[in-house]
Amino acid sequence: MARHGGRRGWYGKLVGAAMGVTVLAAGASVWTAQAGPADDAPPKASRPAAPPTAVKPVSITIAHASEAGARGVNLTIDDGPDPVWTPRVLDVLREYGVKATFCMVGTQAQAHPDLVKRVVAEGHRLCNHSVSHDTAMDKASEDYQKQQILDAERMITKASGGVRPVYYRAPGGAFTPYSRKLAASHGMRPLGWNVDTKDFERPGTASIVATVERELPNGPTLLFHDAGGDRSQTVEALRRLLPRLTEQGRVYGYPVR
Length: 257
Fold this sequence. Notes:
With 257 residues, the chain is an alpha/beta fold. 33% of the residues lie in helices and 11% in strands. The radius of gyration is 19 Å and the shape is globular.
């Protein structure tokens, strides 16, 4: 999400706790051992060991463009998953056949793995939004940035059942050259936005819709939120915008990688 008056974001109070998060194991086990016979023979693998999936590095530049081309629109949904609002956002997207990119906070993904799995099952993409949504990450040490990015990657991947995030969006846009390079080396394209809908501030549904219609010529990537408080205005704004933009010849897509 955007910085919103320089605050550290609604997850700011979790930063201290997040630093104590135990590093989660990445990926699934490559083989399952079976119990050996009564003698002391070594256990046998139930299937051959599979090599780990290679991660292809991506560009370190901050993505704004759409894979759908000049008429593309990228919906990006930040700060969840949330047990109340993420399902409602997903329901609207499914109603209109639209795909989006969900920028998830690691602690939220860890708390609600069922929702992470639903996002993946319904064809949306995952984005790493750090462990605890610290909007001052750009002023922190590289070790801290690394912990926030890589721990969140593990948390989201585990919650999804093994599907990795393919973008990294710094909280409040607090990118650094180091964080962009680190994320890109792990296959996560740094992701920006062109239109901040201001939905986090709850300005009213009509205002959110008007902001999108006014600023969409600036670029295709729209910033919405599915957590951090009452998101009813966001849900209603999406319900109004999705068919309207389709009628205008817009095509929903994903950010470039």
